[in-house]
Design brief:
Layout (H helix, E strand, L loop, with lengths): L9 H16 L11 E6 L2 E7 L8 H8 L7 E6 L11 H8 L3 E6 L9 H8 L3 E4 L3 H7 L1 H8 L4 E8 L4 E3 L11 H12 L3 E5 H7 L16 E5 L10 H4 L6 E5 L4 H9 L3 E4 L10 H10 L4 E4 L3 H9 L5 E6 L9 E2 L14 E10 L2 E9 L1
Parallel strand pairs: 3-4, 4-5, 6-12, 6-13, 8-9, 8-12, 9-10, 10-11
Antiparallel strand pairs: 1-2, 1-3, 7-14, 13-16, 15-16
Length: 372
């Protein structure tokens, strides 16, 4: 046990683990707010638990308090510092004080200037014991998207790759090829459900005509916002994405100023967003991520294609890699999963750490976390 955690008991760890599991439930559903988990314990019994509601409110602490009948003298385990500012609702820190809890254990702090340290101060100044840092690293990973939005003005960016064993996504350029099995594709839809937005380039839309929705039974309502990078506004107005834009929120990021086409797309329900260009006359990925963060996006899943994912990697914007890998190979003539980056040479561009892995159907999945 590290020095920082030596003050915590095994029971403290167990209750905070529960709070962290609750926090994970809200990923992809609470932006622009973080997904906070909260567990309230009294006399060694859990009397309340909650996570941030869909849309970001009520917060996890409020949902947990609403379950508990008598929290006077209770201990609260919360994954993020309780908020201290008045928004649409009163601060969670003040709600905990009013409820009469005796101790609050916080996993990690909130870097938002409206909260940072202030939530803890409200608790301490009211005589509540506060302990910080329990399972901080895990809490930071769960809400990395929210933390990055505050500190770096951009969302968490996850690149998803589905490829053959030798890192190919198709047999030939310009054709759609299923390289992984149905179980792996279903897992890919699960990743869509826990991200705020899914990002693709226009070539993927033109070649595959995808829906980019979540097709897991019971989770269809959690389809992320669909974002298309389309610098020249080449998107076809009869594409699946355009035809379903009134059902699933869709944004097109472009440099083009064709007012007539923009109006037609907007009539279909698409939000057209004008962005800046980089030195090569292409859409600036850094600027795009700043725009997304300003619009409340905290977690982006990039499904490519190959050029978009490679560009994100080269720009140093990638925080995680999810690789769904088939056991079969396509061969040297196949299309590289990352355009001009050999997948075996990813470590030249990213400091990768294997975080989790497993088998799904006949394929395997690997999840990497990058350090910047």
């Amino acid at each position: 046990m590290t020095k920082a955690n030596s003050q915590f008991s095994k029971a403290d760890h167990a209750y905070m683990k529960m709070a962290l599991d609750l926090s994970r439930r809200g990923l992809g559903k609470t932006s622009p707010n973080p997904s906070v988990g909260c567990v309230i314990v009294k006399n060694d019994h859990i009397i309340g638990r909650g996570c941030t509601s869909d849309g970001g409110r009520p917060h996890g602490e409020i949902n947990a308090l609403s379950q508990a009948k008598n929290v006077n003298g209770a201990t609260v385990y919360v994954t993020l510092e309780p908020c201290a500012h008045h928004g649409n609702t009163p601060p969670c820190a003040e709600a905990l004080v009013s409820a009469g809890v005796s101790k609050v254990i916080v996993a990690t702090g909130d870097p938002d200037s409206r909260v940072s340290g202030k939530g803890v101060d409200i608790l301490k100044n009211s005589g509540i014991a506060v302990l910080e840092g329990l399972l901080k690293e895990e809490a930071d990973l769960i809400n990395q998207g929210f933390l990055l939005k505050v500190t770096d003005k951009r969302p968490l960016i996850t690149v998803k790759i589905a490829s053959s064993n030798d890192g190919k996504i198709a047999k030939n350029e310009g054709e759609q090829t299923w390289v992984t099995g149905p179980e792996a594709r279903l897992r890919g839809h699960l990743y869509r459900a826990n991200h705020d937005a899914i990002l693709v380039g226009i070539n993927t839309v033109l070649i595959d005509d995808p829906m980019l929705d979540c097709r897991i039974p019971g989770l269809s309502s959690q389809s992320p916002i669909r974002i298309v990078l389309d610098s020249q506004l080449r998107i076809l107005e009869n594409s699946k994405i355009c035809e379903t834009a009134k059902d699933i929120e869709t944004w097109v990021m472009t440099l083009n100023q064709d007012k007539e086409k923009i109006l037609r797309l907007e009539t279909k329900g698409i939000t057209v967003i004008k962005v800046e260009e980089n030195d090569e006359g292409q859409t600036s990925l850094t600027h795009i991520m700043e725009v997304l963060a300003r619009r409340g996006i905290t977690r982006v899943l990039s499904e490519g294609g190959a050029m978009v994912n490679a560009s994100l990697i080269k720009a140093g914007l990638v925080d995680r890699i999810i690789w769904l890998k088939s056991s079969e190979s396509i061969g040297a003539t196949g299309v590289n999963a990352l355009y001009d980056i050999p997948i075996t040479e990813l470590n030249r561009y990213l400091n990768l750490n294997l975080y989790d892995e497993g088998k799904v159907g006949e394929d395997i999945w690997l999840e990497y976390i990058t350090t910047h």
